[in-house]
Structures are given as structure tokens and as C-alpha cells.
């Protein structure tokens, strides 16, 4: 789904539904265990040299995504709600070079059982943005889509854990 020149503004919500051939408990762990998250978070060919998660209400999220060109994109966040294995709600912010938030998202991920598989619904809503956020927000759908493709691949090779 190409977004063209569309840039999400405050209040815009992206909704992506996925079905994974893996048990719900494993998919939930793939979202809350930093060692697992580091293996799939971010667009294709990105790595996560820093991936620190404290998955409980008020717990911190700190991820540094490194692009293929070596550029590091730091992100922080806070868990609002963690209901194992059903739901995770967190805020996240991409930081500029000075460490200031460029935009903030409220992300809700729900996990439902579906015949031994997991139906996941991800909702990412823009709650704050600055002018410099535009290029990042323009890539939000592609970035999440690629992350979920990486999560699918991760689960395919780890579904028996």
C-alpha cells in the first residue's frame, strides 16, 4: 500500500491486521522480550543495537534502530498497559539529533487466538508531531509493514519456542 505524498497528521491512525502461524503466547513474547524484539523491529535491513524494554505499565522502551547506511534512529517510549497475552499499549517517540521528540505515537497491539494461530491488530495513532516529523511519518505505514514482515519471518523460524 503506497501512501504517495500523504503524511499522517495528529489524530491519524494506521491499522494493520496480521495472522501469524504461531501461538498467541509466543507472539506476545516476541513483542515484550527485548532479545526477540531486537531481531525483527524496524524496516528491512535495519538492526537494533540498543533494545531495552520494561514491559509493565510505566515501564520504559528504548530502541536504537540502525539503518543500512549506519544512521542510528533513536526511539523512546512508555508502556501504558500490558495484559499478557492479550494486549500491549505504549507511547513512542522518534528523537531528533538533540534528543527531542519529533513525533509521538500511541500504539495498541491486540492478540487474539484463531484456530492455533494468532490474529494481531496493530493501531498506531499520531498524538503529537512537529514539522520535521513529516518525512518520518510519511514512511510510517511502510516501516510498520516491513517490521511485521520481519516479525512473520521471525515467528516462522521460532514457532516452537
Q: Report how far apart the termini are.
A: 32 Å
Count of individual beta strands: 7
What is the C-alpha radius of gyration, as a whole number of Å? Answer: 15 Å
Sheet/helix structural class: alpha+beta
From the spread of the alpha carbons, the general shape counts as globular
Percentage of residues assigned to helices: 10-25%
The chain-level mean pLDDT equals: 91
The secondary-structure element order is EHHEEEEEEHH
| Order of strands across the main sheet | 1-7-6-5-4-3-2
Descriptive notes:
The chain is an alpha+beta fold and 161 residues long. The chain is built from four helices and seven strands. It has helices at 24-32, 34-40, 134-138, 140-158, and strands spanning 13-20, 47-53, 60-66, 72-83, 87-95, 101-114, 117-129. The protein has a seven-stranded antiparallel beta sheet, covered by helices on one side. The longest helix has 19 residues, at 140-158. The chain is globular and about 45 Å long.
Task: Provide a concise account of the structure shown.
The chain has helices spanning 24-32, 34-40, 134-138, 140-158, and strands at residues 13-20, 47-53, 60-66, 72-83, 87-95, 101-114, 117-129. It is an alpha+beta fold.
Secondary-structure topology with pairs:
Blueprint: E1 13-20, H1 24-32, H2 34-40, E2 47-53, E3 60-66, E4 72-83, E5 87-95, E6 101-114, E7 117-129, H3 134-138, H4 140-158
Amino acid at each position: 500500500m503506497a501512501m504517495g505524498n500523504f503524511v499522517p497528521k495528529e489524530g491519524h491512525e494506521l491499522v494493520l491486521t496480521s495472522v501469524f502461524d504461531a501461538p498467541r503466547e509466543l507472539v506476545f513474547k516476541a513483542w515484550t522480550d527485548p532479545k526477540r524484539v531486537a531481531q525483527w523491529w524496524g524496516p528491512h535491513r535495519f538492526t537494533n543495537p540498543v533494545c531495552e524494554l520494561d514491559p509493565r505499565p510505566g515501564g520504559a522502551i528504548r530502541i536504537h534502530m540502525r539503518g543500512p547506511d549506519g544512521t542510528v534512529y533513536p526511539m523512546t517510549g512508555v508502556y501504558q498497559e500490558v495484559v499478557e497475552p492479550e494486549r500491549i499499549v505504549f507511547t513512542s517517540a522518534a528523537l531528533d539529533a538533540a534528543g527531542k521528540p519529533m513525533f509521538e505515537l500511541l500504539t495498541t497491539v491486540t492478540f487474539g487466538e484463531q484456530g492455533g494461530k494468532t490474529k494481531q491488530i496493530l493501531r498506531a495513532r499520531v498524538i503529537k508531531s512537529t514539522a520535521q516529523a513529516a518525512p518520518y511519518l510519511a514512511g510510517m505505514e511502510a516501516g510498520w509493514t516491513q517490521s511485521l514482515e520481519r516479525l512473520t519471518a521471525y515467528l516462522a523460524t521460532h514457532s516452537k519456542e
